User: Which sequence fits this backbone?
């Protein structure tokens, strides 16, 4: 069993969930977006458009667009697109 999840509800409508393993999920009500920070520091964003972004500590990013396009952005600024469908 993982243990209890701590949930904080803010007056502006934001929500913060802290999991025992160190994962933190934060919901930004104003922009309807979830931001998850994993114990190792990687971050994942879920936008209302269906776009998802994963950000690594080294500056590497993966962006998955609703149309199925996967964009990789490397720390040196290089970008690479790959269809996933």
Assistant:
């Amino acid at each position: 069993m993982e243990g209890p999840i701590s949930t904080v509800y803010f007056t502006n409508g934001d929500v913060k969930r802290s999991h025992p393993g160190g994962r933190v999920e934060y919901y930004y009500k104003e922009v309807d977006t979830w931001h998850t920070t994993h114990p190792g520091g990687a971050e994942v964003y879920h936008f209302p458009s269906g776009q998802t972004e994963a950000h690594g500590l080294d500056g590497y990013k993966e962006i998955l667009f609703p149309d199925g396009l996967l964009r990789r952005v490397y720390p040196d600024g290089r970008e690479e697109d790959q269809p996933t469908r």
